[in-house]
Each structure stands twice: as C-alpha cells, then as structure tokens.
Amino acid sequence: AVPKIFSSGLDITEMCGKSTEHYAEFWRAVQEMWLRLYGSNMVTVAAVNGSSPAGGCLVALSCDYRIMVENPKFSIGLNEAQLGIVAPFWFKDTFVNVVGHRVAERCLQLGSLLPAPEAHRFGLVDELVPEEKLQEKAAAVMAQWLALPDHARQLTKSMMRKVVLDRLVAHREDDIENFIRFISKESIQKSLRMYMEMLKKKKS
C-alpha cells in the first residue's frame, strides 16, 4: 500500500526488546511464509513496483519470475549485514539459486542493495519495465507460464526446490533457536535500536 516500496521486509520492531517466546513465534511465522511461497505449486510472479530490501527481497526471490520497475532509485537485496544481522541459511540458499554463489557471497557480506539496473544485470530480477507497464507485463508472463502443462511444471518446480525446502524443514527448530540466541544478544539489540533511530530521523 506504500508507493515506491514493494516490501520493506521484516518488521524490525518485532525483533527489538521482546521476549524469547515472542521471537520464537515471530520467526516460526517467517519460516512458514517462506515454506508456503517457495514451496507453492502455483505460478508466482513478483511485480516489484519499488524498493525491496531484506525480507522483501526474500519474497521476490521465492517467486518463479521477477519483474521490476526500471528506476535506478529503486533497489533490491538482502541487506541484513548492514543491520548487523546474518541472513539465515535458507535466505542464502534461495539467493544463491537465483544469482549464483560468487554474486551472492559478495552481496551478502556487504549487505548490498542493488539499484534496479544492477539487479537485472546480476539476474536478481528477470526483467525491467516502465512503471506503467508493470502489471500488464506481469499478467503476460503469468499467462505464458500458465499455458504450459501444469502437472509437468509443478513437478519440475518441486524437483528444483526440494533440497532447499527440505533443509529448512529438517532444521526448523534449530533455526528458531539460532535466531533467538542471535537476536537476544545485546550487541544485536543495540544495532537494531540504532537502525530504528536512523529510520525515525529519515522520516522526520
């Protein structure tokens, strides 16, 4: 609902100053979102109408195809490192599967937010279009994918994504514990508070 933003990612206020029970519930919900979207047998097309950092980038990465507005002011990427956070292994795996190991390694270490043209060059998004053409193009791509025999497409998608999905399912509780342990550290809480202060100053 916010112009120029596809998704601004996870709500940082949910990760700051809360109980361990809250963190566990929150992280389980994030896992569930990804498992459902990345594992969906439906055709999913991300119409990226603006900037898409961190969790927003994960949503786009989890789709079958990504179309972004060709505006260099809009950026996309897993910028967790800038907040002092480490992207979880399943964020990383999803990213590697889209852009390749070297680009993913560099971008994750730097917490890079790539402007739309650069994101396209690295394969993070599949296509760039003028803003007024975004929905039309997304519908056309969707129609192209839906024209295929659905059973074959679904089985192929499942085959391609199964290893990554299974890895989180097998280590789901460990991943939640790691998140709680990490996010509860005072140094991480301090980084998040500083980041939220910075965002408040930007708004004002």
UniProtKB/TrEMBL annotation:
Pathway: Lipid metabolism; fatty acid beta-oxidation. It comes from Ardeotis kori. GO terms for cellular component: mitochondrial matrix. InterPro entries: ClpP/crotonase-like_dom_sf, Enoyl-CoA_hyd/isom_CS, Enoyl-CoA_hydra/iso. Its EC number is 5.3.3.8. SUPFAM superfamilies: ClpP/crotonase. It catalyses: (3Z)-octenoyl-CoA = (2E)-octenoyl-CoA; (3Z)-dodecenoyl-CoA = (2E)-dodecenoyl-CoA; (3Z)-decenoyl-CoA = (2E)-decenoyl-CoA; a (3E)-enoyl-CoA = a 4-saturated (2E)-enoyl-CoA. It comes from the Eukaryota. It is found in: Mitochondrion matrix. Gene3D superfamilies: 2-enoyl-CoA Hydratase, Chain A, domain 1, 6.10.250.170. Belongs to the enoyl-CoA hydratase/isomerase family. It is an enzyme of class 5 (isomerase). One of its GO terms (molecular function) is delta(3)-delta(2)-enoyl-CoA isomerase activity. PANTHER family: ENOYL-COA DELTA ISOMERASE 1, MITOCHONDRIAL, ENOYL-COA HYDRATASE-RELATED. This is Enoyl-CoA delta isomerase 1, mitochondrial. Key enzyme of fatty acid beta-oxidation. Able to isomerize both 3-cis (3Z) and 3-trans (3E) double bonds into the 2-trans (2E) form in a range of enoyl-CoA species, with a preference for (3Z)-enoyl-CoAs over (3E)-enoyl-CoAs. The catalytic efficiency of this enzyme is not affected by the fatty acyl chain length. Keywords: Acetylation, Fatty acid metabolism, Isomerase, Lipid metabolism, Mitochondrion, Transit peptide. Its main location: mitochondrion. Homotrimer. One of its GO terms (biological process) is fatty acid beta-oxidation.
